[in-house]
User: Which sequence fits this backbone?
């Protein structure tokens, strides 16, 4: 369980992400510690070479579950509307009995739908760590519950600060003492606020009071990253 300088909240949760109040650079993704220096260098080269996709759905990709809508299959990046992509997970393959060295890793990208409010896709690539080249065709998943990226978390915090008066007031009253924790929620059923495919994060904002002062009440919010909406969650 990862924390934002403090403990993490407890609720219905599927993924806990890296919650740091100072978010790491987007071009400096965390790499598995078990990889060698050469493997990390090859993996970073693959990430660098593929950081700006030219197509929403990779050409020749395999569809693991439900394919994206047909109108999305040929979406391409343009100067006015580049495609966004986040590195959300890197998973080395398990070593096999006769080969103890890990030779491959799966890299998962999340691509938001260019049409705001629509669910995005997860793109999985298997990488040969000796070369940094993909093995086989990429896979596309539309129902995978992949973790939110550091960039998405940072954007969600900004949305909460902008749109929730209580969060804004907390930052104004304690500019250097606000801390937050988050849980990524899995949306299985359609409701008034959410539907399957929405990337929803629950935040708890708190602040360390000055000596002798009472602690402010925590502020709980739900940020729907997919639809760019935020609501209080005072349950």
Assistant:
């Amino acid at each position: 369980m990862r924390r934002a300088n403090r403990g993490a909240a407890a609720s219905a949760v599927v993924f806990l992400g890296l919650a740091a109040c100072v978010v790491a650079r987007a071009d400096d993704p965390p790499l598995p510690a078990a990889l060698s220096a050469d493997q990390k260098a090859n993996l970073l080269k693959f990430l660098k070479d593929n950081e700006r996709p030219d197509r929403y759905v990779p050409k020749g990709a395999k569809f693991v579950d439900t394919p994206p809508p047909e109108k999305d299959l040929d979406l391409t990046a343009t100067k006015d509307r580049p495609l966004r992509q986040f590195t959300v997970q890197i998973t080395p393959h398990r070593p096999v009995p006769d080969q103890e060295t890990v030779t491959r890793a799966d890299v998962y990208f999340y691509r938001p739908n260019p049409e705001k409010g629509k669910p995005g896709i997860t793109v999985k690539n298997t990488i040969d760590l000796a070369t940094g080249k993909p093995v086989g065709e990429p896979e596309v998943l539309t129902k995978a519950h992949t973790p939110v990226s550091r960039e998405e978390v940072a954007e969600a915090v900004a949305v909460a600060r902008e749109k929730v008066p209580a969060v804004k007031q907390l930052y104004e009253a304690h500019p250097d003492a606000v801390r937050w924790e988050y849980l990524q929620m899995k949306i299985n059923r359609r409701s008034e606020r959410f539907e399957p495919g929405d990337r929803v994060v629950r935040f708890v904002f708190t602040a360390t009071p000055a000596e002798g002062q009472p602690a402010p009440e925590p502020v709980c919010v739900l940020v729907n990253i997919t639809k760019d909406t935020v609501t209080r969650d005072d349950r």
About this structure: Residues 150-232 form a domain with the Nuclear Transport Factor 2; Chain: A, fold (CATH 3.10.450). The first helix runs from residue 37 to 49. The chain has two domains: 37-141, 150-232.
